[in-house]
What does this fold into?
Amino acid sequence: MNTLNKINSMNYQDIKEQAYKANMELPELGLVLFTFGNASAADHEQGVFAIKPSGVPYKDLTVDNMVIVDFDGNTVEGNLRPSSDTLTHAVLYKNWAEVSGIVHTHSTYGTAWAQALRPIPLYGTTHADHTTANIPCAPPMSDDKIAGNYEYETGFQIIEHLKDLNLSYQDMEMILVGNHAPFTWGKTVEKAVYHSAVLEELAKMALLTEQVQPGVMPMKDALINKHYQRKHGKNAYYGQ
It folds into this structure.
């Protein structure tokens, strides 16, 4: 390895470690089975991100086999192929300057709602502690886009659906892709993992709520806003 490559590799070490740690947390949290998911960590100054290699079991992952990719989806460093979802991550990083971590899982409850093509409804205060809206479900893309650059188009499928709902990526940090599965993001990959775990729990709670009370109504706005504002508003008083 020449001197320049050694310097670049050292510069990427931090995001490789972040991505590795995030990926290893996914099975620990019960959010993935086998190779069903991926996490990435970005460095916007360098215009690159580290992501899990494709098809490698979590037990076999190491920091060193995280793949470095630029925001156009080109491999910059690594001997393994990056995740098959790499272009989706690349599109989101290229368009969302404040996002430095993305997680994709096929977690059971979140994926069930995605397969049903249903947003996750806001039924209770646990949900309102994190967002004031239903967790969106982006509709399936058109046949020509599926036949084209599918993973690339998935990134725009997410971006455009948030725009259609007038939701910003800063305020809504999780989404379902219809017939597919959840994606989450955050200012750090640690936050993206957190949002993946939250989405799965909210999906589970919403399903159980509808089973306990078919026809249940969404929670009223006053209670939604109270719980969100006490945690995230300018006069928030949750936490230390």
Notes: The domain at 3-232 is CATH 3.40.225.10 (L-fuculose-1-phosphate Aldolase). The mean pLDDT is 95. Residues 95 and 159 are 9 Å apart (CA to CA).
